[in-house]
């Protein structure tokens, strides 16, 4: 028992390192990709090609004044950033990176991955509520509404893979893809997963929660310094987790010729990440009613239809 | 006592403490937060006992559904920062009800003797799925009917007459 406890602790620390590294790399990539897509260079001055920019930013954020506005609800205000970061870290636990890097093969791993972001919804709402600022409140309300509406088509899109694999365990799903990726068998499911994941991550074109022109900074308007950094870390760690999950469940994870599995896994994960960045810097932002209509009148019916078609094909083909 | 037992009692202690805070803290937001912690600690306890599916369902339905719903209520009624104002008019009866309920639960729990020593091991989710869509199908579908009825009821409540 003590051995399993020790390995659990090692895994937890290891996954925290993975989360931290993915955040550093994610923020750097985001700036470089944005720069080059807009015919700029992005950060160039800290280190070769600005490689140490995120490190410099981290130091800057660490040294900023720890500011808690006077009228906020202190408990909620302090707890919300931590609550936002927790699910991103928790969801890293069930991702089958590549053997032997499989932290935990839960029986209901896929469900776990889909359920954990619910804690992030609470974080967003608590941040908005406790900030004592109407922009924060509206931002929190919007984010929560968006996150909840996109949870349904997202779960349905992954369900098509669960049906094909006949298992809720992420490891089993990975093993069933040695010959053909599930993205090939259920392309609509994969497309739905990408779209709804962009929405779940609050990335453009679904970044309503932070629509700075109308809501200042959304639910984290009142946050600064290290507390604000926690929201950023949550965003980019969640970004990595969602992409890694997509790579494992739809793109066959570490399966691939010649190169070792972990290299394939990283290539596929960052392919998804770069694709989402490409989308972010290409497509303009939706309006809130368009976001809601898209989820309820397009994505959910398409996802249900996809499930039905998958079931029929599985039965008769 | 193994590490699993220690973790279980930790989760149980957290859930009890959170439940106490949820009913005693005067600020509404803190109550809701404590309630969320309570629900999550219960999920942890399920996980430690090997009931992975129940734990995940607990997070899905209670943390992601019930707690968020309550937070929506707090947000939309602009009662943030609100102090607890509702006082019960019958504290004695409330106490009697609570004691009767607690007594019954404790009595039932104390009388429960599992046939064999309970092993905490993971239950295969497919067994659960087969049970829900096999022997328990009628009950499972009836729950869907209740949900449908509540959705229709909610729509009927918020529907506006045309022209108003």
Percent of residues in helices of chain B: over 70%
The share of residues in extended strands of chain B comes to under 5%
According to DSSP, the number of beta strands of chain B is 0
CATH 4th-level superfamily of the largest domain in chain B: NADH-ubiquinone/plastoquinone oxidoreductase chain 6, subunit NuoJ
* Helical residues, percent of chain A: 55-70%
Largest interface: A-B, 35 and 32 residues
Count the helices of chain A. How many?
13
Secondary-structure element series of chain A: HHHHHHHHHHHHH
Structure summary:
With 317 residues, chain A is mostly helical. Chain A contains 13 helices and no strands. The termini of chain A are far apart.
Report what the structure shows:
The complex is a heterodimer of chains A (317) and B (164). With 317 residues, chain A is mainly alpha-helical. Chain A is 70% helix and 0% strand. In chain A, helix 1 packs across helix 12 and helix 5 packs antiparallel against helix 6. The longest helix of chain A is centred in the first third of the chain and has 36 residues. The mean pLDDT of chain A is 87. By secondary structure, chain B is mainly alpha-helical. Chain B folds into two domains: 81 residues, Four Helix Bundle (Hemerythrin (Met), subunit A); 41 residues. Chain B has six helices and no strands. The mean pLDDT of chain B is 83. At the A-B interface, helix 1, helix 3, helix 4, helix 5 and helix 6 of A face helix 2 and helix 3 of B.
Spell out the key features of this protein.
heterodimer; B: 164 residues; mainly alpha; Four Helix Bundle (Hemerythrin (Met), subunit A); 6 helices; 73% helix; globular
């Amino acid at each position: 028992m003590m051995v399993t406890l020790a390995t659990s602790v090692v895994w937890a620390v290891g996954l925290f390192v993975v989360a931290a590294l993915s955040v550093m790399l994610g923020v750097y990539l985001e700036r470089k990709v944005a720069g080059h897509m807009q015919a700029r260079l992005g950060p160039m001055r800290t280190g070769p090609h600005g490689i140490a920019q995120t490190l410099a930013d981290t130091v800057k954020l660490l040294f900023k004044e720890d500011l808690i506005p006077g009228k906020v609800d202190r408990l909620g205000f302090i707890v919300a950033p931590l609550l936002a970061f927790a699910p991103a870290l928790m969801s890293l636990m069930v991702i089958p990176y590549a053997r032997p890097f499989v932290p935990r093969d839960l029986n209901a791993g896929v469900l776990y991955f889909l359920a954990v972001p619910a804690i992030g919804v609470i974080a967003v709402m608590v941040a908005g509520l406790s900030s004592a600022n109407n922009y924060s409140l509206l931002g929190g309300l919007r984010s929560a509404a968006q996150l909840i509406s996109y949870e349904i088509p997202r779960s349905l899109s992954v369900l098509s893979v669960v049906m094909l694999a006949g298992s809720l365990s992420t490891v089993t799903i990975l093993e069933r893809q040695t010959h053909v990726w599930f993205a090939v068998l259920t392309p609509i499911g994969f497309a739905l997963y990408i779209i709804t994941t962009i929405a779940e991550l609050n990335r453009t074109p679904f970044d309503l929660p932070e629509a700075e022109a109308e809501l200042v900074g959304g639910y984290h308007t009142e946050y600064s310094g290290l507390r604000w950094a926690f929201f950023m870390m949550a965003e980019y760690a969640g970004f990595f987790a969602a992409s890694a999950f997509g790579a494992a469940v739809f793109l066959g994870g570490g399966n691939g010729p010649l190169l070792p599995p972990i290299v394939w896994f990283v290539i596929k994960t960052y392919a998804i990440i770069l694709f989402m960045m490409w989308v972010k810097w290409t497509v303009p932002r939706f309006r809130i009613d368009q976001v809601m209509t898209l989820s309820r009148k397009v994505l959910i019916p398409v996802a249900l239809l996809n499930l039905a078609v998958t079931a029929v094909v599985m039965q008769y083909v | 006592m193994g590490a699993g037992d220690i973790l279980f009692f930790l989760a149980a202690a957290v859930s009890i403490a959170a439940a106490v805070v949820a009913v005693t803290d005067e600020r509404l937001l803190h109550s809701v937060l404590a309630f969320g912690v309570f629900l999550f600690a219960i999920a942890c306890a399920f996980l430690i006992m090997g009931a992975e599916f129940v734990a995940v369902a607990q997070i899905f339905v209670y943390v992601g559904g019930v707690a968020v719903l309550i937070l929506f209520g707090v947000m939309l009624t602009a009662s943030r920062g609100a102090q607890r104002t509702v006082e019960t008019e019958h504290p004695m009866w409330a106490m009697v009800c609570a004691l009767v309920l607690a007594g019954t639960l404790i009595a039932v729990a104390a009388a429960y003797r599992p046939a064999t020593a309970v092993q905490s091991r993971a239950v295969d989710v497919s067994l659960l799925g087969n049970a829900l869509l096999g022997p328990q199908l009628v009950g499972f579908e009836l729950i869907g009917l209740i949900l449908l009825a509540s959705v229709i009821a909610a729509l009927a409540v918020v529907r506006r007459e045309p022209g108003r």
